[in-house]
Amino acid sequence: MNDYIWLLPPTHVSNSGDKLSLLDFNNLQIRTLAGPAEIGIDLLHAMDGERTEEEINGLDYASDLISVLEKYELIVRLQKPLSEILEGRIWASRQLAYYAQLTRRYPERCLEALADKRVAIIGLGGIGMQAAQALAGAGISGLILSDFDTVDASNLNRQFMLSTKDVGRLKVDVVREFLLDRHPHLEVDVHAINPFESPSDQWERGDLFLFCGESHLAGDANELITHKPVIQAGYIGKEGVVGPLRWVEKGTPCHSCATKQSTQYNEFYKSEVALRTSWNCSGSTINGLMGNILAEAATRVFMPWVGEALALNEAIYMDMKTLTMRRDIADREIECPHRVPAPSL
Asked: Architecture of domain 115-329 in CATH?
């Protein structure tokens, strides 16, 4: 009874004569409510996230209406007043409404779960930039970004943080400026280095690693990310991929060992000849999709209760030709001396 009651946004209400109707978008049905329409509208206005269930139940028909709306999953329960949850972070209002779609009970827990987390992103191409922006908007408190590349005009079809005036600048500098202009609450550390060649103590602050670079470069990353959870993302041709999720402390092989043993191209790349027109097939849409799916998968490492998270060793694949997705468990048999043995039963 002490929960604060919030009508699930964006619930649409229609008042036609004496009938009050709601659009139940969960089931794509129009629900007609019993009772006088005028009283119903007053009650719906009272469900603004600022009043407790006990306060609202003091109004006529309130208890019956709350029961009906909960049956239709249109009631959100908060532990604190909505205004208190959003105090000093009005930017999070729409994000909180999104989290309410995923969990009706205490969606503010999602913001709390992300508020002290830092995500390290290695590689600020189209996927890395999309993931960085999405994570900042989701409520992550800090990002650690690594990319030693400079902006090229060929990046502009997909790397939305860049503009023509940025050509020649370090990507990490441009991305940091963009993010801080948009998200002043964010802490952003940048490193214009190859983290596998010059690891920094700053990386230890990362709670999760997102690897958005060439996968074959991660073979020597042992000291950097053996004990951290890692999600990889990228694409080959027309197929995008997010995953697998590697988490040594939960029994998976580390990202580095998995890369060494699952990539058959390591020797090939050591003697690769660069052809003049062998461009990366990096489309704008595949980068946007994979970057945002990666960010969503990353948040669920910290708040798995909102929905189906990536399973250990699992990856999501997107076929851009057919616009179909599938999930699969990758690389089940990998030797890794860093793996933490599963507890015996």
From this structure: 3-Layer(aba) Sandwich (3.40)
